[in-house]
Recover the amino acids of this structure.
């Protein structure tokens, strides 16, 4: 059966002499894996389509019994070419697609997540938008969509409100207050400003004006919290390749 999908390229793998296996995240069916025969030959018109982060439309032959579908043709919807002019933005976009690749395993439709992905890549490629904020917004909403919304308003042990600070450790899935938290070498402290920022990112639509302004130590705290929280809840994210580059930029 011939199918059509709107999708973002997550990763590609060379196959044989001229083919590629492409992993996509699509609006219609979620994760989608295609084999594109002959696309690496110099005559192929589809070669430029399959860079990770590209937003494309594909037509493919679908077989219900197969994990790998056959690519027929495709066209570019948005190349997000602004990413190529800025190494930081390109790195964040690569983290976005790799994070999605590591967290969304099944072929399951999730149109809100697809829209979040496309909107985030558009924000990252727009130099008038703060790239860190576009990234943070994506990360907390991805966690929420996957069922791992961070609960930062209250201590997860005694339920007292966390106002001035919270602690996330190696053994506990959500932040605790200073009285309940047993410090480990993995303990991450988050300030009241970081707590407010996470709540704000989760509660407000994108581009609301009153977002908190974080100083550099709070920004670092937010990065540490997001990644430690994500590693705890979604194990495969620990081994992301693009994180190494991200650490060089923000570590
Ligand atoms: Zn407590």
């Amino acid at each position: 059966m011939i199918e059509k999908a709107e999708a973002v390229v997550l990763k590609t793998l060379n196959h044989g002499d001229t083919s590629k296996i492409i992993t996509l995240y699509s609006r219609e069916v979620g994760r989608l894996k295609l084999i594109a025969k002959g696309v690496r030959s110099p005559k192929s018109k589809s070669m430029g389509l399959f860079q990770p982060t590209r937003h494309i439309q594909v037509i493919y032959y679908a077989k219900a019994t197969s994990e790998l579908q056959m690519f027929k043709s495709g066209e570019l919807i948005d190349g997000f070419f602004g990413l190529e002019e800025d190494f930081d933005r390109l790195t964040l976009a690569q983290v976005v697609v790799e994070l999605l690749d590591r967290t969304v395993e099944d072929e399951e439709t999730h149109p809100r997540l697809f829209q979040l992905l496309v909107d985030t890549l558009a924000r990252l490629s727009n130099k008038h938008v703060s790239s860190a904020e576009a990234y943070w917004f994506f990360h907390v909403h991805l966690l929420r969509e996957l069922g791992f919304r961070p609960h930062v308003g209250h201590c997860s042990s005694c339920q007292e409100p966390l106002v001035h600070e919270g602690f996330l450790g190696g053994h506990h899935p959500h932040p605790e207050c200073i009285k309940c938290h047993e410090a480990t070498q993995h303990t991450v402290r988050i300030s009241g400003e970081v707590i407010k920022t996470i709540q704000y990112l989760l509660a407000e639509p994108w581009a609301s004006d009153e977002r908190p302004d974080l100083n550099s130590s709070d920004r670092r705290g937010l990065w540490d919290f997001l990644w430690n929280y994500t590693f705890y809840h979604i194990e495969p994210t620990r081994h992301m390749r693009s994180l190494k580059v991200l650490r060089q930029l923000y570590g």
